[in-house]
Amino acid sequence: MRRYDVAISVAVEDNEVAKMIVAELEKLHVKYYYYEVQEDISWGEDLIGLTMDAYGKHTRYVLLITSKIFVTKYWSDIEKQIALTRLQRGYILQLRLDDTSVDGISKHVVYKDWKNNPEEIAKLLHQKVRRKKRLVRDRWLRISTFFSVLLATVLIWGLLLGWEKNIVKKVLVVSANDTFYISSVEVTVAAYREYCMRERKAFPAQPVNSCDDGPIRNITWSEAKTYCEAIGGRLPEETEWEYAALAGKNTTYSGGTSAVTVAVYHKVKPAKIGSKKPNAWGIFDMTGNVAEWCDDWADSTNTTKVVKGGGYDSSINPVNELAVSYRRAERPDERLQDVGFRVVWDKKN
């Protein structure tokens, strides 16, 4: 259930603008989240969880009061990234104090400029909230009890099945020369964001079509390596990656000979992790979705790193970029929209 009609994200230096808008929202009985006012709610709460709830599942809209100061602030960036990944397009509202561009906010999305007009801004927010609530109410009134129960049942089973599939598991891999564990899925946007919050690291901007259950992207090789080490693991070596991908089979792709069955490819964005058939060892997305960093250098000059698996934008003709044997070479400092990673752990005797 939504606790707030609107959550306000603003730099501390721009608080006076937020306070004027909040005063007008109170007159209109619009429920809002603004950290300076809700100190009684925040006190004693986990800051990371509170932020994820306030700017994600507990609000209808997020109001970003952006400025040249806003784009430099750590928590403003966290709040913006949570909103971008958890809210649908049209629910993030930008109020510009100046014309500073903001990563992740398209210049083609309609915005409002601040003109010392808190009453106008509050009324517009009130109208959007009322319109949304009316649409939601009308929609539910048109649904019969039978179809409501049926839909709820289908959704619950879908969530349960999806949750079971997307649980991160350590899959034991035993070869003649090595024994290790490998993650059953690629590292997700949600997992990487929580790591950044926990370690107080900057969260890299994600493409606008990303989602929490999708693979993290725009990650450098060093950032992927550091994440792995932070949870007691490491990046896979190329030979380990290929061995785990084939799962003891002699197939072109990880999980079979049909790319359509096992891979998300020739698309404009990746899918949620575990959307396709796993290989024989229960490992998902080693073919397609996003390509994956490996630990090895790809060349003798130590200039590029090995990338394996192909991604959502890969093709199979004229070169089969999805084949397990195919390798890419990318600079380790590059941020690539089709490259993510997964974790390997050494087996302790």
From TrEMBL:
Keywords: Membrane, Transmembrane, Transmembrane helix. Residues 178-345 form the Sulfatase-modifying factor enzyme-like domain. SUPFAM superfamilies: C-type lectin-like, Toll/Interleukin receptor TIR domain. The chain crosses the membrane at residues 140-163. InterPro entries: CTDL_fold, Sulfatase_Mod_Factor_Kinase, SUMF_dom, SUMF_sf, TIR_dom, Toll_tir_struct_dom_sf. It comes from the Bacteria. The keyword ATP-binding does not apply. Coiled coil: none annotated. Residues 6-124 form the TIR domain. One of its GO terms (biological process) is signal transduction. It holds the Pfam family TIR_2. One of its GO terms (molecular function) is formylglycine-generating oxidase activity. This is SUMF1/EgtB/PvdO family nonheme iron enzyme. It comes from Chitinophaga oryziterrae.
